[in-house]
Specification:
single chain, mainly alpha, 2 domains, about 85% helix, Ferrous iron uptake protein
Length: about 90
């Protein structure tokens, strides 16, 4: 129980650091009017993550072990595809 707490704490601190860096950048570049939009994005992302987490927990909780591993593999392949596509489109 303690290890998942530490992982979530670390991830939360990383997210807070990123949001504070973006807010600082917006203020220093005289784009303070975009801070409200940034917060809308932060809360939308948090709501989406929470909803998706609940959905995945509810749908995969009843999978047998083999199907859960297959589901995790498919999600990992989709994540790799999206990150690769992002890297290709940025280049």
């Amino acid at each position: 129980m303690f290890v998942p707490f530490l992982i979530m704490l670390r991830e939360g601190l990383e997210a807070a650091l990123i949001v504070s860096l973006i807010a600082s950048y917006l203020k220093r570049t005289q784009r303070g009017q975009w801070i409200a939009v940034m917060w809308i994005g932060v809360f939308a992302a948090a709501a989406l993550c929470l909803g998706l987490g609940i959905f995945i927990n509810e749908t995969t909780g009843e999978f047998p072990q083999k199907e859960q591993e297959l589901f995790e593999g498919i999600v990992a392949v989709i994540a790799v595809f999206i990150l690769t596509l992002d890297g290709v489109l940025d280049a």
